[in-house]
């Protein structure tokens, strides 16, 4: 614990009547303040409302497409190195833009009864410049290693690992494709270009929103190959309690389209005697608010995955959902993740049910035929 900052009462110091402000005193004060965060009840909707009053001929015009792209660009203010996102005209279907039904945002919007980010309990490192994960002194490296170790103990990942305790290499490429990610945070002493700051520094790879043949809108890579382990963006949206997610889910199921993501990562169940007893606390809903990642379709042979990523909230139940590639992606290839999490586990579950004479088919519109076209497709969505 020698490097972790442990919150303690902070007593300001004075010199000749002037208050002395140091980085340590600044951090101590900031910890006592509430981090500004967005409330889902304040989601803007005037642009969508306005567009929806205009005739369909305008909404289906190139001007509408440009307005949508400008709306996206506006939300990219915290991603200075992110290439612009185009709504790609690939001549599939009639829609020129996605429906004007959501606010484009890269942020999380907190729903009713969701606690604000817990910054008081954040552990932070005291590294100078870039963190040296092998020094043994970096509190963030030690915290990451502690979680990696739990995966090793649970036999989920091999115990031999030639890399550093961080899950990223020195260029910010994700090396460990199984564990949650613990990045350095706002109270760490290290620089902004520390190799343990990737998600917080934003997307760098080009992606586009495209029409697909059978799955509505989707996301494709741009004109560059994207290497395995590259960060693409967070699955942004409203952070809701499980109860609210369930209520909304009932409508989405009937409607046949859902943007709900349950925060039920493996590591959250580690302390449970029986993981079946575990109860989900939060979900992310990208229906009314979200970014390009709300258009990521499901594939039974995915090239992306969503990882739990912790930055400025010490509450382990409220990670950011960070999308990374899990293999090299060709230029213009569609980007997809598995809506089932571990698709092989799901495949086994379906096989077992079939052997037992059961079919896991449910009634609502959302349990549709999977159109991912993978050779090992399991056949249905959300079954
Ligand atoms: C998170 S949204 C993805 C974006 C969506 N395609 C759109 O146009 O907004 C999830 C919905 O996309 C469709 N979808 C995603 N993956 C699919 C697949 N493999 N096969 C068929 N439909 C899919 C389903 O309607 C699903 O409810």
From TrEMBL:
One of its GO terms (biological process) is methylation. Residues 123-202 form the Pre-SET domain. PROSITE patterns: PRE_SET (PS50867), SET (PS50280). Residues 205-340 form the SET domain. Its main location: nucleus. GO terms for cellular component: chromosome; nucleus. Keywords: Chromosome, Metal-binding, Methyltransferase, S-adenosyl-L-methionine, Transferase, Zinc. It is found in: Chromosome. The keyword Iron does not apply. It holds the Pfam family Pre-SET. GO terms for molecular function: histone H3K9 methyltransferase activity; zinc ion binding. This is SET domain-containing protein. It comes from Boletus edulis BED1.
